[in-house]
Design brief:
The chain is α+β, with helices and mostly antiparallel strands and 396 residues long. It has three domains: 143 residues, no CATH class; 63 residues, Dna Ligase, domain 1 (2-Layer Sandwich), CATH 3.30.1490.20; 128 residues, D-amino Acid Aminotransferase, Chain A, domain 1, CATH 3.30.470. It is 31% helix and 18% strand. It has 14 helices and 19 strands. It holds the Pfam family Dala_Dala_lig_C. InterPro entries: ATP-grasp (IPR011761), ATP_grasp_subdomain_1 (IPR013815), Dala_Dala_lig_C (IPR011095).
């Protein structure tokens, strides 16, 4: 594996504590779902730390748990016996070893990993989970692969080497000396500078001069992150969600959901959905729009191939944008997201909530509960996620 994860020691919990839960899991016929949120601080990986989301995705985790329970008739395990729809913390378990053991002891047979995983995450390493690893199912990606693929520079360079993918030109900047060297190059402005392990639009900026680029990158480099500097794509922005193979969706291979268009950018960048609601700057394209422009199906095929290449086991989302502001311009891939946001409506006061993947689902005639059920149906045994191997073309 490229690089090592630096992490804190986890409390050791005896496997005997989950023995009863293991016996229950082996005979359970219906799922009992526990949603996990990001309790753990993201580790330092190759000198770079991914910023933790404020709240640790508990808001979307509560959306998922509430809708599964009240609109999908799924047995949802919660930290408290009578969860309050307006209290996010009542619906989700922390992704620490203790939090997951608590969920299993309460009877969980499925984990919904609504969190950021990494190679030394307790979901991957905890010996206390080994006794249930073959029966416990997880909605999520293999932790070891997530750590590798959360490095946007690694993924982009991998796709360039493999060929067949359209991407903007880019430069990697690991330190201030590399930045100084790059600033001597005759870059074509504007360019986009962003963290190599970013979250959403955090730290992403369109820079229109060497001075602006230098100031922004120096700020990012001080925050334990490397930087990607890539050509600015000036045309229409969109995003494509790719689903994994699953009998519940009727697909035995990877497949793309309808394209979702992004608009109303702020300074050339789609704003974080915590600031501007997805419904205010995004829409699912109609079937006729897809059919009228072959560039949509072309980029969908590329996104499907990315998911197949990375061996994803859960939905993933890829942001794309045309090179030029013209319908004749092709799309380029510019951001591969291993954990798409899954916010959605259902809880009181959350009626206007949505996510890009939920919007894409509407193009299939799926509402938010249907999407969640389809995702639950694609869950994978923890044993398989732990033992997922790197694709043969990737060398450690």
């Amino acid at each position: 594996m490229t690089g090592l994860t630096q992490h804190s020691a986890q409390p050791q919990i005896s496997a005997r504590q989950v023995a009863a839960a293991s016996r229950h899991m082996s005979t359970a016929s219906t799922p009992r779902v526990a949603v996990l949120y990001q309790e753990l601080e993201p580790p330092l990986i190759n000198g770079v730390r991914k910023p933790k989301k404020p709240g640790g995705y508990r808001d979307s985790g509560a959306d998922i748990a509430y809708v599964l329970k009240h609109q999908c008739a799924i047995d949802v395990i919660t930290p408290v016996s009578a969860p309050d729809p307006e209290r996010d913390a009542d619906w989700c378990f922390g992704d620490s070893e203790r939090g997951m053991i608590d969920a299993i002891e309460k009877g969980a047979t499925h984990f919904w990993a609504n969190t950021i995983l990494f190679a030394n995450h307790p979901l991957q390493t905890s010996p206390s989970l080994t006794s249930v690893a073959k029966t416990l199912k997880v909605v999520g990606q293999p932790p070891k692969l997530v750590e590798l693929y959360d490095d946007k520079s690694f993924v982009n360079n991998l796709l360039r080497v493999r060929g067949g993918f359209t991407l903007p030109s880019a430069h990697d900047v690991q330190d201030e000396q590399a930045l100084a060297d790059l600033l001597q190059v005759d870059l074509k402005y504007p360019v986009v500078a962003k963290p190599v392990r970013g979250r959403g639009s955090s730290g992403v900026k369109v820079c229109r001069s060497p001075e602006e680029l230098n100031e922004h990158c120096r700020g990012l480099l001080k925050e334990e992150t490397s930087v990607i500097i890539e050509d600015y794509l000036a045309g229409q922005e969109a995003t494509v969600t790719v689903m994994p193979p699953s009998p519940d969706t009727g697909h035995d291979n990877y497949w793309a959901m309808p394209v979702v268009e992004r608009f109303n950018h702020a300074e050339g960048v789609a704003p974080y959905n915590g600031i501007v609601a997805v419904l205010e700057n995004s829409r699912c394209l109609s079937e006729s729009e897809h059919e009228s422009d072959p560039h949509y199906s072309q980029i969908q095929r590329q996104c499907v191939e990315v998911a197949r290449l990375l061996q994803c086991t859960a939905p993933m989302r890829i942001d794309v944008r045309r090179f030029e502001d013209s319908e004749s311009s092709p799309f380029a891939l510019f951001d591969v997201n291993m954990k798409p946001n899954m916010t959605g409506p259902g809880r009181p006061g959350r009626e206007q909530q949505a996510s890009l993947t939920a919007l894409a689902a509407t193009g299939l005639g799926w509402d938010y509960p249907t999407l969640l059920l389809k995702m639950l149906g694609s869950s994978t045994p923890l044993h398989d996620l732990r033992n997922d191997k790197l694709p043969p073309f990737i060398r450690e």
